Amino acid sequence: MGRTYAAKVLVADVPELEDVFRSCFSPVHDVTYVPSYPEAMDAIAANRYDLIVVGMHFGESRMFDLIRFTRLERRNRTTPVVAVCGLPSEFSEDTHRAVEHAVEALGGNGFVQFTLERDSLTAACRAIERHLPTHAASSSPL
């Protein structure tokens, strides 16, 4: 087996989901978790990430603001940004598509909605991991 690359990942979401997101990534990855918009802005301005994951309910629903900020910040302008919704929501198919389009229009790379049920969470982790750089290890423990 070849050398494993440790990706630098920023996850910006509500504190209740920190353990859920940490379980998505292999321990080899350097995962920073921030629960507030100011902390996320500071992290993005100060560090280069391989992947940024931002929750829909993060920072009083400032997901779109953080995507926009990331695309304006030189250091992470090309970093993949995946928007997620892991808290209960009853999106219609049309609403889900509208959020996907808004994320893409702001420069995000995808929108993943999931529940905390094992199959849904496993599928979400795989969808998120697909945005890791090809030189990063894909080894979700789920």
Task: Describe the fold and architecture.
This protein is of the alpha/beta class and 142 residues long. It is 38% helix and 17% strand. It contains six helices and five strands. A five-stranded parallel sheet has the order 2-1-3-4-5, sandwiched between helices. The model is unreliable at 136-142 (pLDDT under 50).
Topology, pairings included?
Layout: E1 8-12, H1 18-22, E2 30-34, H2 37-46, E3 51-55, H3 58-61, H4 63-72, E4 81-85, H5 93-105, E5 110-113, H6 118-129
Parallel strand pairs: 1-2, 1-3, 3-4, 4-5
What descriptive keywords fit this protein?
about 140 residues; five-stranded parallel sheet; 5 strands; alpha/beta
Summary, kept brief:
This protein is an alpha/beta fold. It is built from six helices and five strands; from the N terminus they run E-H-E-H-E-H-H-E-H-E-H. Strand 1, helix 1 and strand 2 form a beta-alpha-beta unit.
**Uncertain regions: pLDDT < 50 for 5+ in a row?**
136-142
- In percent, how much strand structure appears in the residues? 15-25%
H and E order: EHEHEHHEHEH
Mean of all residue-level pLDDT scores: 88
Structural class: alpha/beta
Major sheet details: 5 strands, parallel
Which value, in Å, is the CA radius of gyration? 14 Å
Number of strands: 5
